[in-house]
Amino acid sequence: MSESxxxxxxxxxxxxxxxxxxxxxxxxxxxxxRERRAADDVRRWHAERFRVAKELLYxxxxxxxxxxxxxxxxxxEDEYARLRQSGHTTLVNVPETDVPPHxxxxxxxxxxxxxxxxxxxxxxxxxxxxxxxxxxxxSILSEGAxxxxxxxxxxxxxxxxxxxxxxxxxxxxAFDAVLAMKxxxxxxxxxxxxxxxxxxxxx
Length: 203
Fold this sequence. Notes:
Layout: H1 3-71, H2 77-85, H3 111-141, H4 145-165, H5 171-179, H6 182-196
């Protein structure tokens, strides 16, 4: 083999090696870029899921607090019966003329009690209307147990509002309905923690 042929082969090998290195470098760069974009997507969706879950949890827990306080203002069984006899099915539509005037006796369902219950129901309705939109967002953003837990929590919260709004129930039934919100809230929190990989330190 002549010297010129050897030099040509060496040159070809050098060019081939350089070209292979360039191709490999480009392939590695593209792979690294894909992995970076995938990691960015994971971080972005993780943050979005956290935001929506946090907002939903806040609105449901705030409605729980409001409804729990309102339970103490509800009518007793005799007062419920009088309201039903007057044709009222919901406390929201009871006119102030159909309840006693303001009384210093906290056991009497008077105009002040009626106003406080109405305000609580309006606040809870508003919070849960917003929560309904967040529940829909979670059904799109999340998977696994989280969407189901969100729907269950939302449903129990609506039931609690209905228990306070109706004149066909009792004060005890309303308390029980609000108390029933506790477990679904805890289940939703647990589902979100599992989905987002949040570890809560043991006490």
